[in-house]
Design goal:
The protein has 211 residues and is an all-alpha fold. It is 75% helix and 0% strand. The chain is built from ten helices and no strands. The chain is elongated, with a radius of gyration of 23 Å.
């Protein structure tokens, strides 16, 4: 996906030292919005270069690119040319920080699903079924009943995320698009919903293990 995006981009001409110094002067001293835009465009390849150093899930690629660009914009806005530090070095930390933060949110959500416990995952993944099937036990019915109750108590946005992911079987990207939220925010909601439901179910699961 990143390669396809790169192929669609127009080549970016590198700035000369004098051109860059002029742009920084215009932006920082004269608040020239066009100079700011030119600096962001000129350093966009830095975002792509840094992103290429990560193992990026396809479903997250464009969101990571967007987050990296936000880091670049923040760097342009906070950079002080008078400090004598090259902008590419200064910007690198903000861009990488944005990318790593979103990747950690993504990983945390995946870990939450794994660490939630077998009983919890069974209940969440099958919570919408009318019954557990002929092989189902009383415990299966009780678990699904508890999951439904926990689901009903979630805030609306979190319910929509759980519904889309575990009931409707939609991909994270398509569900986020339908809910009109960014993928990074979708993962935050998903993580919060799983943590909240796991908390609601923790006592029930602990009691069932004792039994």
């Amino acid at each position: 996906m990143i390669k396809e995006y790169l192929n669609s981009l127009a080549p970016v001409r590198l700035l000369t030292e004098d051109e860059e110094a002029s742009l920084w002067h215009r932006y920082k001293e004269l608040a020239d919005a066009e100079a700011r835009a030119q600096l962001i465009r000129a350093y966009q390849p830095l975002v792509i270069k840094l992103l290429a150093g990560f193992s990026v899930p396809d479903e997250l690629a464009m969101d990571l690119l967007q987050e990296g660009t936000v880091g670049l914009i923040e760097a342009v806005e906070h950079y002080d040319p008078r400090q004598g530090v090259k902008f590419s070095i200064y910007a690198r930390y903000r861009i990488r920080g944005r990318i790593i933060n979103l990747l950690s949110q993504y990983s945390a959500t995946k870990r939450a699903e794994i660490l939630a416990g077998d009983e919890f995952l069974l209940g969440v993944n099958r919570w919408s079924e009318t019954c557990p099937g002929p092989e189902g036990t009383v415990a299966d019915y009780e678990l699904q009943s508890q999951v439904r109750q926990a689901f009903a108590r979630l805030p609306q946005k979190e319910r929509q995320v759980v519904q889309a992911t575990y009931v409707d079987g939609k991909s994270s990207q398509s569900a986020a698009t339908e809910l009109s939220v960014s993928l990074s925010y979708f993962y935050k909601l998903q993580k919060k919903a799983l943590r909240r439901m796991r908390g609601m179910l923790s006592r029930f699961i602990a009691d069932s293990r004792k039994g």
